[in-house]
């Protein structure tokens, strides 16, 4: 597309047409008598010197963004010479344009540039008055105010651009922070669950030396858990790959493989599912899966051997999850980071749901979550 090529072109190339336009319009009879000038001295006919003045006034606009100081200096010089020699040119309109561009793009010595420009204009006004210019003091002041407005407009554009750049930087930082948090949560959920199961299974295997068959079964469970951990981590890394098109769906098999794994680690778990999942590969279903996973991990850690009940109810409005223990088990001696439940609360609340994790009055612990399947409200 021509528009795309134009946007990709160098900034000097994109600014050059304006400079050439001022050159061309300076020769058009249509604009005769409407030139930009101050002082009202009688106009001098166009000659070779006027051509130099024209080039000085117009052509530097091509670098008004690449080199704003040079552009302003050359345009001001051309305007100064043109007014003193009384060349009335449309190209003199380049002065307020160069002033506005300097206000917008000049990075260094901005105050010096403004003071120098004001002093130069004051000297020009005094000189024109001494040369007999009929311009009134009010006319000189109005022209100067116009230049001040042009500088102010450029400065406003500069501050607006800086504010937008700062806003984008903050949005980018917030996005990166949110992505790091999401990755940390996913890693926590996957790694903590599998490692906890492996530790519990390995500890149980220590007491089965006299029962080779059960020992072999326990070690096979440890190996199977390790393979599941590697598979889940590969799946997670695939999802985090920028080239991965699909989202992070629920691990294959749903909740049953997760429950079976915990059962093999020695935790008595009862699973009840009501209704039919409406977004198996969606964010709500994945969040529900993580709630169950983290709750079962905590049951293995803090209530090993305790009867654990998982109840999941699917509906068109959302997913309700409840995982509870009866408090009859023992702590497995596996430490935790303490961020698991907090991360779950953030996940669920981000979807507009509700989350709670409380101790039961008669002992045990219960985790409840309500996760809507629609957009957050």
Give a short summary of the structure.
The chain is α+β, with helices and mostly antiparallel strands. The protein has 11 helices and 5 strands.
Listing every helix as H and every strand as E from the N terminus to the C terminus, the arrangement reads HHHHHHHHHEHEEHEE
Q: Report the mean per-residue pLDDT as an integer.
A: 82
Report the major sheet. 5 strands, mixed
Spatial arrangement of strands, main beta sheet: 1-2-3-5-4
Query: How many β-strands, per DSSP?
Result: 5
The share of residues in extended strands comes to: 5-15%
Could you list the spans in which at least 5 consecutive residues all have pLDDT below 50? 332-336
How far apart are the first and last residues' alpha carbons, in Å? Answer: 41 Å
Instruction: Specify the helix fraction band.
Output: 55-70%
Structural class: alpha+beta
The number of helices is 11
* Shape descriptor: rod-shaped
- Radius of gyration over C-alpha positions, nearest whole angstrom: 38 Å
Characterise this structure.
By secondary structure, the protein is an alpha+beta fold. Helix content is 59%, strand content 9%. The protein has helices at 2-8, 11-25, 48-58, 68-84, 94-105, 110-130, 137-205, 212-240, 255-264, 283-302, 340-350, and strands at residues 269-274, 308-314, 318-325, 354-359, 365-372. It is rod-shaped, with a radius of gyration of 38 Å.
């Amino acid at each position: 597309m021509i528009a795309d090529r134009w946007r990709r072109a160098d900034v000097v190339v994109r600014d050059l047409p304006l400079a050439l336009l001022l050159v061309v319009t300076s020769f058009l009879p249509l604009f005769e008598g409407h030139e930009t000038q101050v002082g009202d001295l009688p106009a001098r006919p166009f000659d070779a010197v006027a051509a130099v003045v024209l080039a000085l006034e117009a052509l530097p606009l091509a670098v008004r963004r690449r080199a704003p100081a040079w552009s302003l200096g050359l345009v001001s010089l051309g305007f100064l010479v043109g007014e003193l020699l009384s060349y009335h040119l449309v190209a003199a309109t380049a002065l307020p344009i160069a002033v506005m561009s300097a206000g917008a793009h000049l990075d260094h010595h901005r105050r010096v540039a403004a003071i120098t420009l004001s002093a130069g204009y004051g000297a020009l006004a005094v000189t024109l008055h001494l040369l007999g210019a009929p311009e009134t003091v009010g006319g000189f002041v109005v022209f100067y105010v116009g230049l001040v407005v042009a500088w102010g407009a450029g400065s406003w554009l500069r501050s607006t651009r800086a504010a937008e750049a700062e806003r984008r930087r903050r949005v980018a930082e917030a996005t990166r922070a949110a992505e790091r948090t999401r990755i940390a949560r996913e890693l926590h959920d996957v790694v903590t669950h599998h490692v906890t199961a492996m530790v519990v299974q390995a500890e149980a295997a220590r007491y089965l030396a006299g029962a080779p068959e059960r020992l072999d079964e326990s070690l096979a469970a440890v190996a199977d858990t390790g393979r599941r951990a590697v598979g889940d981590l590969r799946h997670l890394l695939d999802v985090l790959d920028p080239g991965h098109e699909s989202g992070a769906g629920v691990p294959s098999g749903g909740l049953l493989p997760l429950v079976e794994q915990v059962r093999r680690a020695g935790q008595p778990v009862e699973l009840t599912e009501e209704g039919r999942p409406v977004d198996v590969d969606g964010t709500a279903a994945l969040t529900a899966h993580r709630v169950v996973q983290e709750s079962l991990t905590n049951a293995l850690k803090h209530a090993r051997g305790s009867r654990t009940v998982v109840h999941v109810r699917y509906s068109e409005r959302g997913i309700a999850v409840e995982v509870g223990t009866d408090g009859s088990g023992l702590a497995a001696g596996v430490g935790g980071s303490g961020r698991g439940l907090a991360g779950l609360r953030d996940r669920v609340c981000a979807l507009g749901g509700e989350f709670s994790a409380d101790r039961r009055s008669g002992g045990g612990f219960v985790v409840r979550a309500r996760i809507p399947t629609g957009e957050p409200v």
